[in-house]
Amino acid sequence: MGDRANGYEVRVDDAVDGWRVTIHDPAGTVVLERACRDGSEARTFASTVRQHLYWLSPETFRSYYRI
Questions:
Q1: Cβ neighbours of residue 5 under 8 Å, at least 6 residues apart?
Q2: Torsion angle, alpha carbons of 11, 22, 1, 5, to 10
Q3: Which one of 16, 22, 25, 64 counts the least CB within 10 Å of its CB?
Q4: pLDDT at 55 over 70
């Protein structure tokens, strides 16, 4: 399962073209992708998203991230 009971998951990847943070819906589909300048920015953004997954209702989370 994802980072929270609602099934969403946050991943941080160091790709060939730079750092990326992706949010995956419960089906595993990428619903948001953000390029980051370095690992620190990527980890900070991912941490913020994970906190929002924990604190916000699924409806508010989807609205906040427009997914």
A1: none
A2: 110
A3: 16
A4: yes
Query: What is the DSSP track for the chain?
Result: --SSTT--EEEEEEETTEEEEEEE-TTS-EEEEEEESSHHHHHHHHHHHHHHHHHS-HHHHHHHHT-
Type of residue found at 57? S
Tokens representing 12?
């941080």
User: Rounded to two decimals, what is the model's pTM?
Assistant: 0.85
Phi/psi region, residue 44 (left: phi>0; alpha: psi -120 to 50; beta: rest), is alpha
